[in-house]
Amino acid sequence: MMDELWKTTIAQIKDSLPESDFSSWFTRLVFGGEDNGKVTLYVPSAFFKDKFEASFKELIENTMSELGGQNYSIILEVKKDAQKLNSDKKSDEKPKTETSFPSSSNNQPAAADQKNKTSKPSVDDMMFNPSYTFESFVPGDNSNFAYSACMAIAKNPGSAYNPCLLYGGVGLGKTHLIQSIGNYIKKNTKQKVVYVTAENFTNEYIQSVGEKKTQQFKNKYRKVSILLMDDIQFLQKKAETQNELFNTFNDLYDTGRQIVFTCDRPVEELKDITDRLRSRFERGLNIDLLPPNYETRVAILRKKCQEKGVIFSDEVLDYIASNISSNVRALESCLTKLIAYCQLLNKDISLETAKEQLKHIISSNNDTSGISIDLILRVVANYFNVSVSDIKGKNKNQSVVLPRQIAMYLCRKLTDYSTTEIGNEFDGKNHTTVMYNVQKMEARLKSSEKEINGVIDKLETQIKLESRK
Ligand code: ADP
Ligand code: MG
């Protein structure tokens, strides 16, 4: 029972966090047991522990308490070989759940703990999420073209659509499709296919420079037949990595090997990308992935129900599809929530229950990301004890300049609004002002000023929590 609750909690958190956060922080978290509402979780290092204390503890507690219908508090314990302990468990003991999630990340933040890796599937196997296949993808008007192109690429890599770039908003299936290509090729051919997020590519590159192993790095990426790179927006401002990717690109392209990229926005909206790399992204086929229409949303829900072996009434599915329109991940979150409810309480779902259970997800999804600019402004103003109108306004007093900068930065980071739209919310400021402030904040965060990093973490967690209320 406790194990189920833990699994459901993790599934729900996975749906509510950016994938990179989840794969960086939650894949090495180990459930240790529960006693009287106190839940012990093992983390691999003090670094993880601090991060969890600051960013995720409350989220886990709230999610678990909400799903379990009683209060749970989390105790974090550093246990260097927790994962090993996990796999050594005898079968008659209550199994401890390890949150498993296929992650391409071999650059976890606590690099020092790398040696704790036990005999797991190879990194190559872990790059691909086996559930991301063409069969499990439901094409609709919004995605037919992307779907067909990816299929054509998988069947005949390096020919018609090379390179190919898929772009579109969060949760619309970019990762699913690009991974489907990889899974298809792995299953049907012997060709070497590599999936990597631009973030991991960057981290690996930096690491290889630090360890003087750039040649190894170059070999790894230049030997592949098909390179699938997810979320290239992450490369913005990373000039060195861009340079490396440019060279890799040329190498692969000139020898007819397939490259597929994804991006959360059109290439022309990427900032701080060198012209020569931008022109490479623009070469070949660029495909837009749009939000699904109502019929496609219902079809996706039906498919997911089928996969999970559950049945919900048409009116429940209609309710979800009518209320969530812009993000397939959010559709899935609704199903996860209802399934958890059914399993824990052993009850069927009526329309009334569905409405009650889903009201948080649905109300927070009224904008594309689940987080509104208003909410961000409110949380930041409250934290600094200044008024929302001061943050929005023109006052140059030091006491509001920093909160304003932070609020703009968080709007950019946590929502899908463009800098123009954000500027409008800040009393009609120009988008360049927003950009300037966001960049300033990013620079400060990068120079890893401890205090400001801590503040941002705290605010982010609170905003995410509030958005779920
Ligand atoms: P993105 O990378 O664009 O942010 P993902 O590929 O991670 O989005 O998709 C989010 C979730 O929604 C995934 O679990 C994915 O399987 C699912 N999904 C998205 N589009 C579809 C679709 N058309 N059919 C089935 N599942 C989908
Ligand atoms: Mg993605």
Beta fraction: 5-15%
Q: Count up the helices.
A: 21
Q: How do the SSEs run, as a string of H and E?
A: HHEEHEHHHEHEHHEHEHEHHHHHHHHHH
- Look at the structure and give the mean pLDDT: 85
Structure description:
This protein is α/β, with parallel strands linked by helices and 469 residues long. It folds into four domains: 2-78, GMP Synthetase, Chain A, domain 3 (2-Layer Sandwich), CATH 3.30.300.180; 124-288, Rossmann fold (3-Layer(aba) Sandwich); 294-361, Helicase, Ruva Protein, domain 3 (Orthogonal Bundle), CATH 1.10.8; 373-467, DnaA protein, C-terminal DNA-binding domain (Chromosomal Replication Initiator Protein Dnaa, Chain: A), CATH 1.10.1750.10. Helix content is 56%, strand content 9%. It contains 21 helices and eight strands. It has helices spanning 2-16, 19-25, 46-68, 82-88, 123-126, 144-155, 174-188, 198-210, 214-222, 239-254, 275-282, 294-308, 314-323, 328-345, 351-364, 373-384, 388-392, 398-414, 419-425, 431-446, 450-467, and strands at 30-35, 38-43, 73-78, 164-167, 193-197, 226-230, 258-263, 285-288. A five-stranded parallel sheet has the order 5-6-7-4-8, with helices on both faces. Strands 1-2-3 form a three-stranded mixed sheet, with helices on both faces. Helix 3 (46-68) links the parallel strand 2 (38-43) and strand 3 (73-78). Helix 6 (144-155) runs parallel beside helix 7. The radius of gyration is 23 Å and the shape is globular. The chain starts with a helix and ends with a helix. Mean pLDDT is 85; it is low at 85-121. It binds adenosine-5'-diphosphate and magnesium ion. Magnesium ion is lined by residues 19, 174-175, 230-231.
